[in-house]
Structures are given as C-alpha cells and as structure tokens.
Amino acid sequence: EFGLRRAQGPDGAVSASRYCYIGGFDATSNILAGKMYGIPFKGTNYHFFITSFNKLTDLDHIEKTINGCPCTMKDFIQICLSYKEAVCNLLKVNSSETIE
C-alpha cells in the first residue's frame, strides 16, 4: 500500500490504506489514515521530518547519540556521507552524480 502518490480521487490514499488494512496488511505508511482508523504506522512515516530540512546545514544544531557516544549532527552527517561514498564506490557510481 506504499503507493500513496498514485492513489486516485480526493480520499484515494486514505481509502487505499483503510482497505489494505481491512484486507490483511499489518500497517500503513499513511499517517492520516492511521489516525483516522487506528491503523498502526510503519515505513516512511518519518518522511515528513526528513523533508522538513532544505539542506544539510539545517541539521548542524541537532545533537544525537550514536552507539552510546554523543555527537553533533555534523558528525552524523559526515558518517552518512562516508557511507554514501562507500556505496557509490561499490556500485561504481560517481558520487558527484548523486544528491545529498
């Protein structure tokens, strides 16, 4: 049911989530349907958080704990960028062709 952008009609996404749950799905990625019908959320429900930032520097003030060690979000971003670089190397893709 993770195709909400393609759902048709004014309530297509909510209806699709509801009927998928009735039909046996365990959860929904649609937070509105989850709140309206008591369906558990799973999957991309933090997408709203991720898309609330315009650029990586918007995260600089946030502090996180990684493996029990405090770090700034800047440290976390560097870790993510190093993983991105490793994946690009593995897939033989130039990292300049990707987006942050």
Task: Write up what this structure looks like.
- By secondary structure, this protein is mainly alpha-helical.
- The chain contains four helices and two strands.
- Strands 1-2 form a two-stranded antiparallel ribbon.
How does the SSE layout of this entry go?
Blueprint: H1 12-22, H2 31-37, H3 47-50, E1 63-66, E2 69-72, H4 73-91
Helix pairs in contact: 1-2
Which percent range fits the helix content?
40-55%
The rough form would be described as: elongated
Structural class: mainly alpha
Number of helices: 4
What is the arithmetic mean of pLDDT? Answer: 77
The poorly predicted ranges are none
Strand order of the largest sheet: 1-2
**What summary fits the major beta sheet?**
2 strands, antiparallel
Q: What integer value in Å does the Rg equal?
A: 18 Å
Give the H and E element order.
HHHEEH
Total E-strand runs:
2
Alpha-carbon distance between the termini?
27 Å
Percent of sequence in beta strands:
5-15%
Task: Compose a concise summary of this entry.
The chain contains four helices and two strands; from the N terminus they run αααββα. With 100 residues, it is mainly alpha-helical. Strand 1 (63-66) and strand 2 form a beta hairpin.
Supply the key terms:
mainly alpha; 100 residues
